[in-house]
Write a structure and sequence with these properties.
Chain B: Its EC number is 2.7.7.4. The complex is a heterodimer. Chain A is of the alpha/beta class. Helices cover about 30% and strands about 15% of the residues of chain A. Chain A has two domains: about 5-190 and about 285-295, 3-Layer(aba) Sandwich (Rossmann fold), CATH 3.40.50.620; about 205-285, no CATH class. Chain A has nine helices and ten strands. In chain A, α1 (about 5-25) crosses α2. The relative contact order of chain A is 0.16. Chain B folds into three domains: about 5-215, Rossmann fold; about 230-315, Translation factors (Elongation Factor Tu (Ef-tu), domain 3, Beta Barrel); about 320-430, Elongation Factor Tu (Ef-tu), domain 3. In chain B, the strands form four sheets. A seven-stranded antiparallel beta sheet of chain B has the order 7-15-11-12-14-9-8, with no helix packed on it. Chain B has a six-stranded mixed beta sheet with strand order 2-3-1-4-5-6, sandwiched between helices. Chain B is globular, with a radius of gyration of 23 Å. Chains A and B meet through α1 and α2 of A and α2, α3, β2, α4 and β8 of B. Bound molecules: guanosine-5'-triphosphate and magnesium ion. Guanosine-5'-triphosphate binds near residues 20, 23, 153 and 190 of chain B.
Chain lengths: ~300, ~450
């Protein structure tokens, strides 16, 4: 008999979580950005319900600040699995005045309103996210089934005890539950799993030549939305992305890791966390993530 | 013999426990730090915050106390989950709060733990809260227990003090059912790092393993072949395609034991028997699946099976009953009164239930029970009888941590009221009594 290794256990735990939600909720949805965590999430959902199709639609909160490769990958993946994609567009909210562009042009914080609006209007009662507890120490405190009030807020001091693998998904009308099947995975687990399962990812995760400019110590892609400003110079470098997010605040790293083996070697040796290396939004303050989660962020 | 390096790294789930300020979060921070699991930007943030607090050395508890209110108050309020790995093992670590008010979060962290590190402050010794946590760990059946006698730096690395505390605690743990010799005591300083990852030069009198050495080598999983098969059906997978005509599979996670193709099984509560025709996964068929694996079972006969049913080994099936004894760890501010109407979630089924009787409350200090207490308050442990609207297939928790466990849920607001354990686990923890029930011996040890 094959003894379960650490990745097998994580996989089985995630599949168990997907099936619990399918059994107990009426209208679940999977948050899908085309990033590596949400792609692994979808891969696990496919495994959980095979040979039947995944019984949930996908939801993309689109900042409008995307790299083409990611949107192309998103659409290709949706098509491949024959799933329905709901897009909540930050641009639409800005266009009709429900949201206002921030002075710094960053749109990650603007995602919360379209997300909650979409959850309410589609009556989603369970929302799968690819969040991992190892990403950030406020996330490290979150339950796998995380109850949100009708404003989508997380109240860290009033979390339910989560005992054994018996998840309590009870909620009142208007409330919903965020579900995090990858809670116990580390960044390295995700990459090892991508390697083991041969999971296709957007090409930006692997080293390539790109025109970039430097801002706040990060390499940003030159593009119509992100800059560069007059005082920022563009140069072509070999880079890759460690996370996918709003283009104006998600940086690339200089890297020669062009395939999965090289990426795993690089991540194992890295001395920076993925968010610390590439996400300006998490550097805002000591409790940046906790504050955004309280407001209903992913 | 295969060397350890050839084996895939396995996973150990552990939790901390112990009274407030005994150094749990600092110990976790130290484990992460000394195993080089903390990355530079995280460490920079901790250094900066420590300097702001006027400290000369970094406060490693800041690595785990992730909420604003925790940092402000300098205590842990909720469980933090942390991950690290060595070449031998991957670890999922739950750092729990020590404050009495948050004991329910300790219950959360301990419910899935295979090992608990219980801390005491060497200056204070075994406290009321230490004894309470040890009882909770024994009750929840955490199989391995380590006593970390922390802040040994503050008692001049005194062997005598260590021995006294280790002896007092080991006696208590033995009374709770931990086999003699199963509890390892280690003198540590989480602050300085003595005997956490690196062996201390200050404790030449201590010859046992460091904490990490022990965590890497302690055996964890009982052999699943000795445990009867249990499989709560979570979901029925149905599809009809050219490749999979009239497919009907029962999806779930093997909760206990193993299942082999061809095994005779019984579907509960209905009691219908058939055999396992196939064990399906997306990656292909399996001949055998062990506890912890998510699979889909195809059965030889068409039986009406829905979510909430339990598939079990036909030769060793659990009792199906609508009335059973249980121990409750009460986790709600709303007190439990006998006669309360609640929901019980067991495996994949949720049923209406009544807490028919509240027989006793456990006094975890004296290891004795108080008969008919009238109510059970937050953080109290009690012995009850539960009556359910529909029969459930239950195992005794002392025999099976998965199928002997259940949640008590408030039907009105959906909150989790209690951790439930089937059986008379409490009376087994009770040492202060004249007669012993021969069959109720809890053995949390391996
Ligand atoms: N001298 C010394 N101080 C320590 C040691 N371990 C922890 N401390 C200090 O003890 C205090 C409490 O440490 P924490 O790690 O926050 O304690 P805790 O057990 O996590 O507390 P709660 O989670 O609130 O129950 C802090 O000031 C630590 O620096 C040690 O080994 N030696
Ligand atoms: Mg603490």
């Amino acid at each position: 008999m094959n003894k379960l290794d650490a990745l097998d256990r994580l996989e089985s735990e995630a599949i168990h979580i997907f099936r619990e939600v399918a059994g107990e909720f009426d209208r679940p949805v999977i948050l899908f950005s085309g990033g590596k965590d949400s792609t692994v999430l979808l891969h696990l959902a496919v495994k959980a319900f095979w040979p039947a199709p995944v019984p949930f639609p996908l939801l993309h909160v689109d900042t409008g600040h995307n790299l083409d490769e990611v949107i192309e990958f998103r659409d290709r993946t949706v098509e491949r699995y024959g799933l329905r994609l709901v897009v909540a567009s930050v641009q639409d909210f800005i266009d009709d005045g429900r949201l206002e562009e921030r002075p710094d042009g960053t749109r990650n914080p603007l995602q919360t309103v379209p997300l909650l609006d979409s959850i309410t209007s589609n009556k989603f009662d369970a929302v799968f996210g690819g969040g991992r507890r190892d990403e950030e120490r406020a996330r490290a405190k979150e339950r796998i089934f995380s109850l949100r009030n009708s404003f989508g807020q997380w109240e860290p001091r009033r979390q339910r005890p989560e005992l054994w693998n018996l998840y309590n998904g009870r909620h009142r009308a208007g409330e919903h539950v965020r579900v995090f099947p990858l809670s116990n995975w580390t960044e390295l687990d995700v990459w090892r799993y991508i390697q083991r399962e041969n999971i296709d990812l957007p090409s930006i995760y692997y080293a390539h030549r790109r025109e970039v400019f430097q801002r706040d110590g990060m390499w940003l892609t030159a593009g119509p939305w992100f800059g560069p400003n007059a005082d920022e110079t563009v140069q072509e470098l070999t880079i890759r992305y460690r996370t996918v997010g709003d283009g104006s605040c998600t940086g690339a790293i200089q890297s020669d890791a062009a395939d999965i083996e090289a990426v795993i070697a690089e991540v194992s040796a890295s001395r920076l966390t993925e968010r610390g290396a590439t996400r300006a939004d998490d550097r805002l303050s000591e409790a940046a993530m906790e504050d955004r989660k309280r407001e209903g962020y992913f | 013999m295969t060397t350890l390096r050839d084996l895939p790294p396995d996973l150990l789930r552990l939790a901390t426990a112990g009274s407030v300020d005994d150094g749990k979060s600092t110990l976790v921070g130290r484990l992460l730090y000394d195993t080089k699991s903390v990355l530079a930007d995280t460490l920079d943030a901790v250094h900066r915050a420590s300097v702001d607090k006027g400290l000369s050395t970094p406060d490693l508890s800041l690595l785990v106390d992730g909420l604003r209110s925790e940092r402000e108050q300098g205590i842990t309020i909720d469980v933090a989950y942390r991950y690290f790995a060595t070449p031998k093992r991957s670890f999922v670590l739950a750092d729990t709060p020590g404050h009495v008010q948050y004991t329910r979060n300790t219950v959360t962290g301990a419910s899935t733990a295979q090992l608990a590190v219980l801390l005491v402050d060497a200056r204070k010794g075994v406290l009321e809260q230490t004894r309470r946590h040890a009882a909770v760990l024994a009750l929840l059946g955490v199989p391995q227990l380590v006593l970390a006698v922390n802040k040994i730096d503050l008692v001049d690395y005194d062997e005598g003090i260590f021995e006294v505390i280790a002896k007092e605690f080991t006696d208590h743990a033995t009374a709770l059912g931990y086999p003699i010799g199963s509890v390892l005591s280690i003198p540590v300083s989480a602050l300085v790092g003595d005997n956490v990852v690196d062996r201390s030069a200050h404790t030449p009198w201590y010859t046992g393993p460091t904490l990490l050495e022990h965590l890497e080598n302690v055996p964890v999983e009982p052999d699943p072949h000795h445990v009867p098969f249990r499989f709560p059906v979570q979901y029925v997978i149905r599809t009809n395609t050219a490749e999979h005509t009239d497919y009907r599979g029962y999806a779930g996670l093997v909760a206990a034991g193993t299942v082999t193709k061809g095994d005779e099984i019984v579907v509960l509560p209905a009691g219908l028997r058939t055999t396992v025709a196939r064990i399906d996964t997306h990656d292909g068929e399996l001949d055998e699946a062990e506890a912890g694996r998510s699979v889909t079972l195809i059965l030889a006969d068409e039986i009406d099976i829905t979510r909430g049913d339990l598939i079990a080994a036909a030769v060793d099936a659990p009792a199906v009953t609508d009335e059973f004894d249980a121990t409750l760890a009460w986790l709600s501010e709303k007190a439990l009164k006998p006669g309360a109407r609640v929901l019980v979630k067991h495996g994949a089924s949720t049923v209406q239930a009544i807490v028919a009787d509240l027989h006793a409350r456990f006094d975890e200090q004296k290891l004795s029970t108080v008969a008919t207490p009238g109510a059970l308050q937050l953080n109290e442990i009690g012995q009850v009888t539960i009556r359910t609207a529909e029969p459930l297939p239950v195992d005794d928790y002392s025999v099976n941590r998965r199928t002997g466990a259940f949640l008590v849920i408030d039907a009105a607001d959906g909150s989790t009221l209690a951790a439930g354990l089937v059986g008379a686990g409490l009376s087994a923890l009770e040492t202060d009594r004249s007669t012993t029930d021969g069959d109720a011996v809890v053995s949390p040890g391996p």
